[in-house]
Amino acid sequence: MTILSDSDIIEGIMHETLNIEPFKEDNLTPNGYDLTIAEVSIPDKDIKVTEGKAVIPPKTWFAVSTLEVIRLGARYSGSLWIRTSFARRGVISSFGKIDAGFEGTLTLSAYNGSEKEVELDIGNTFAQIVVHELKSMPRSLYESRSGHYQGQRGVTLDRINDGTG
């Protein structure tokens, strides 16, 4: 697998083999793209924040939705990494792989493991996507393999076990 550079990402967007919408050149990194916070949800407290600041209490699980809609073509997959500025404040995240053919916003799961509140500004970056080029064409794409979260917008929690997916 090859990791796409900033130049490769721009070329993929120009050739429509991948898309990031809205795209901001300032969010490009040498080997990825920084994803922006659109929504923060704290399900256990029934809190949803879409503007201003979200304040995450200590020892609290929360979910973040990206502003960007990501569309990966048949030859790309993605991996996600938390921005180290959040990790340094005690935010712990475990992200999965984004399958070839996925389209939608991303819901990112995180936990404030610190003893202090963590503030998240809507519109700031939270995680980075690193795009990988697959060596060969997959036999089937995300939508036809499972597709539970294809086309999602906003924080989308468990569709598999809640009967909606």
What topology emerges from the helices and strands here?
Layout lengths: L1 E2 L2 H9 L3 E4 L6 E2 L2 E11 L4 E3 L3 E4 L3 E7 L2 E4 L3 E7 L1 H4 L3 E3 L9 E2 L2 E6 L5 E4 L3 E9 L8 H4 L20
Structure description:
The longest helix is centred in the N-terminal third of the chain and has 9 residues. The model has no long low-confidence stretch (mean pLDDT 90). The chain starts with a strand and ends in a 20-residue tail after the last helix. It has 3 helices and 14 strands. It has one domain: Deoxyuridine triphosphatase (dUTPase) (Deoxyuridine 5'-Triphosphate Nucleotidohydrolase, Chain A, Distorted Sandwich). The chain is globular, with a radius of gyration of 16 Å. The chain is mostly beta strands and 165 residues long. The strands form 3 sheets. Strands 1, 3, 4, 5, 7, 9, 10, 12 and 14 form a 9-stranded antiparallel beta sheet that branches.
